[in-house]
């Protein structure tokens, strides 16, 4: 049987056969070897069957970052069912909306240790995983992924990060999210690495775990790296075991990546992905080049192109919508018959340009475009200028209603500690660097930007309070 015809968990079983007594998962309350992890997953598959769950059924998981999550996920796949992992941090109404959409056979909120054996399902094209994006509006949309998509994605992740069986990976990202699930869990397990499940993100505890466990690989969002650099314990932390850090889920500014490299002594590997596509663009650990303005190149096996408004492929360095073709793309959205791929291509909704040697630069977002008096303003461009100001820690730009122009440009700014730049100062700074129609006429200072579990700025939350003093 070739790998292309196997359920993804079959590949994890092969890894377990090579490293049966090696620790696979290290939790505060337990350590599971590769053999024990597979035995407990088999026991959970049997428990599901005893509860009248069968192949093809959907099983929702509401579990923390713990060995129980991993056992449940693998057990579902051994059975041939589909896993629907949900964050325990969802509000009740958010969770209820997703459960109503997916109609699972069971909702798993607790897993008991139980070992067993199981004859694993093998169909590679069967649905393996539903991914629901965070911070979305309207009806929840579940992206459906096959086992073959998981296989391509995690082999790609492992190659991208150059993971070996000698690595120790610190996992603090939410496992229901694709970045945490693939990058910090499944790809390391595929290569026989050790995964330290630290639970939530607390800077001093993360730094202590890096030292104690001699962590070699850390994955995080930009906010996490900022908080670690700002932690009092950072200066005295021994990070000598770390060979690589990886950012995802939200853009990692170049100044942050540079500061981290200077102080931590190793590189942040930047890249790009989304709920529907698993890390199709990235820098690679095996390649040393970094370009401040770019997110990397298409990883092996993935194609990218930039398409203008009229559907014509753009020329070199021209801006257009980024289209991606990857074996790790979703099959479709659950309960939605509309096609999501055009001849295998996924339209990302992001604006980008691509260099002659394939490096991709994201320049804005189609759906976030602000139409001001007939001119198009893309928030990311304005945000980048604000971020260059020495007194600005973070900024988010949105369009707000205007009676004559349609929309006006507004910025929410988090000032650096001890700084007080003033709205007029920042407006003038932007006016000097942007076209007149682009600079923000409204600037509001906030203590922090609202963010989802993955670090994505929730701009809809910012707009909720706009009419109050905006």
Descriptive key words:
five-stranded antiparallel β-sheet; seven-stranded mixed β-sheet; alpha/beta; Rossmann fold; globular; 470 residues; GMP Synthetase, Chain A, domain 3
Description:
- This protein has two domains: 3-361, ANL, N-terminal domain (Rossmann fold), CATH 3.40.50; 369-464, GMP Synthetase, Chain A, domain 3.
- The chain is an alpha/beta fold.
- It has helices at 8-18, 34-50, 67-79, 92-102, 147-161, 178-190, 203-213, 222-230, 254-264, 379-387, 423-431, 459-464; strands at residues 23-27, 30-33, 58-61, 82-85, 106-108, 127-132, 142-146, 168-171, 194-197, 217-220, 244-247, 268-269, 271-274, 277-282, 297-298, 303-307, 320-325, 332-333, 341-342, 345-354, 360-365, 370-372, 375-377, 392-402, 406-415, 442-445.
- The mean pLDDT is 90.
- It contains twelve helices and 26 strands.
- Strand 8, helix 6 (178-190) and strand 9 form a beta-alpha-beta unit.
- The longest helix has 17 residues, at 34-50.
- The strands form seven sheets. Strands 2-1-9-8-10-11-12 form a seven-stranded mixed sheet, with helices on both faces. Strands 16, 17, 19, 20 and 21 form a five-stranded antiparallel sheet that branches.
Short description:
Helices cover 29% and strands 26% of the residues. The protein contains 12 helices and 26 strands. A 7-stranded mixed sheet has the order 2-1-9-8-10-11-12, with helices on both faces. Strands 16, 17, 19, 20 and 21 form a 5-stranded antiparallel sheet that branches. Strands 4-3-5 form a 3-stranded parallel sheet, with helices on one face.
């Amino acid at each position: 049987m070739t790998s292309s015809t196997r359920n993804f968990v079959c590949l994890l079983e092969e890894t377990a056969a090579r490293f049966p007594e090696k620790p696979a998962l290290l939790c505060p309350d337990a350590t599971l070897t590769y053999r024990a992890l597979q035995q407990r997953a088999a026991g959970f598959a049997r428990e599901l069957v005893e509860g009248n769950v069968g192949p093809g059924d959907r099983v929702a998981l509401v579990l923390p970052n713990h060995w129980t999550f991993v056992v449940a996920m693998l057990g579902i796949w051994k059975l041939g069912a589909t896993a629907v992992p949900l964050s325990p941090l969802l509000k009740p109404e958010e969770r209820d909306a997703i459960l109503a959409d997916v109609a699972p056979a069971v909702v798993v909120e607790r897993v008991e240790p139980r070992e067993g054996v199981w004859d694993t399902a093998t169909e590679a094209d069967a649905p393996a995983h539903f991914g629901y994006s965070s911070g979305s509006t309207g009806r929840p949309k579940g992206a459906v992924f096959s086992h073959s998509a998981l296989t391509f994605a995690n082999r790609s992740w492992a190659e991208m990060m150059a993971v070996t069986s000698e690595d120790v990976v610190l996992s603090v990202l939410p496992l229901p999210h694709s970045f945490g699930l693939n990058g910090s869990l499944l790809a390391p397990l595929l290569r026989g690495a050790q995964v330290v499940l630290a639970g939530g993100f607390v800077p001093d505890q993360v730094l202590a775990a890096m030292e104690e466990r001699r962590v070699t690989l850390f994955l995080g969002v930009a906010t996490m790296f900022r908080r670690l650099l700002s932690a009092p314990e950072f200066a005295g932390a021994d990070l000598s075991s770390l060979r690589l850090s990886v950012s995802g889920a939200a853009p990692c500014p170049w100044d942050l990546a540079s500061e981290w490299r200077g102080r931590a002594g190793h590189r942040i590997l930047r890249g790009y992905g989304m709920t529907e596509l698993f890390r199709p663009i990235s820098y690679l650990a095996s390649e040393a080049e970094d370009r401040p303005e770019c997110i990397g190149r298409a990883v092996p096996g993935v194609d990218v192109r930039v398409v203008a408004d009229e559907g014509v492929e753009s020329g070199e360095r021209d801006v257009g919508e980024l289209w991606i073709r990857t074996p790790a793309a979703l099959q479709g959205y659950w309960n939605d018959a509309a096609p999501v791929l055009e001849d295998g291509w996924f339209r990302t909704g992001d604006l980008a340009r691509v260099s002659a040697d394939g490096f991709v630069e994201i320049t804005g977002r189609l759906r976030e475009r602000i139409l001001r008096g007939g001119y198009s303003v893309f928030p990311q461009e304005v945000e980048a200028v604000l971020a260059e100001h020495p007194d600005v820690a973070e900024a988010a730009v949105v369009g707000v209603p205007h009676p004559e122009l349609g929309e006006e440009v507004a910025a929410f700014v988090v000032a650096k500690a001890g700084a007080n730049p003033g709205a007029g100062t920042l407006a003038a700074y932007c006016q000097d660097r942007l076209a007149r129609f682009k600079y923000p006429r409204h600037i509001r200072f906030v203590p922090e930007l609202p963010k989802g579990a993955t670090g994505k700025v929730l701009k809809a939350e910012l707009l909720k309070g706009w009419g109050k003093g905006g």
